[in-house]
Design a protein that fits this description.
By secondary structure, this protein is of the alpha+beta class. Helix content is 43%, strand content 20%. The chain binds adenosine-5'-diphosphate (ADP). Adenosine-5'-diphosphate (ADP) binds next to strand 5, helix 7 and strand 7.
Length: 213
């Protein structure tokens, strides 16, 4: 991650004088605390500086690799997730394929009427059924989807490292982001609140590379 000139100056000041408050850094640089806020956020997010309430900022002498590890271990699924593209289980294979094109995604998440997760369907699942001589207009998506409880998910509080690891370990492209709700009958429901895809992770890497995160 490349730091801006101002961020390098901030790190130098903190190295020399830390722990130091944002206001004091501002005084030295002749800038307001508000102007510095985005820089301080980037420096703490990436683990270069640590911030302690009522103490201030201090330098965290870490190697480059550890910094990357800290950055992806700090960013949470809820910070970067995108909107889920969901369909109902009665949707036909034909309509599901159309949705892949209209929504420009590779995986659809299948939910019940309350928004609860019941399955996932990938583009190869759909290709398989489409080349098998079946009538795509007649087959419901529920016949071809991978079902619960075999769906790999993440929660909004999971780190982006945990999400990336799951994508790799399970060799899949998309993770539904779910919140668990307990129903009055004692059962649990997984409400779909987002999705994390390989694209989400790649975009984040690009942003980190540009020093915007
Ligand atoms: P593709 O099949 O197009 O290569 P994936 O690699 O994402 O796409 O999917 C591989 C298989 O895993 C498919 O059968 C799909 O239904 C299933 N799958 C996709 N996402 C998940 C998930 N989050 N949890 C469990 N199974 C999944």
């Amino acid at each position: 991650m490349e730091l801006t000139d101002r961020q390098i100056k901030i790190v130098e000041i903190v190295k020399e004088r830390g722990p130091i408050t944002g206001e004091q850094i501002g005084e030295i640089l002749n800038l307001t605390r508000a102007t510095l806020r985005p820089d301080l956020a980037i420096l703490t997010m990436s683990g270069i500086l640590e911030a302690r309430p009522r103490v201030g900022y201090y330098y965290n002498g870490q190697s480059g690799n550890t910094l990357v590890a800290r950055a992806i271990g700090k960013i949470r699924v809820k910070d970067v997730k995108s909107l889920p593209v969901v369909v109902r289980e009665a949707t036909t294979v034909y309509d599901a394929i159309v949705t892949l094109f209209t929504e420009d995604v590779g995986t659809l998440i299948i939910v019940d009427n309350e928004g609860g997760l019941i399955g996932v369907v990938s583009r190869k699942d759909l290709l398989k059924i489409a080349i098998g001589g079946n009538d795509a207009q007649k087959i419901p998506i529920s016949m071809v989807m991978t079902r619960m409880p075999n769906i790999v998910t993440v929660t909004p509080e999971d780190t982006i490292y945990q999400a990336a690891k799951r994508l790799i370990v399970h060799e899949i492209d998309t993770l539904p982001v779910v919140r668990t709700f307990a129903l009055p009958n004692g059962h649990e429901r997984q409400e779909v609140v987002g999705r994390i895809t390989k694209t989400t992770i790649t975009k984040l890497l690009v942003e980190l590379g540009e020093g915007h995160n």
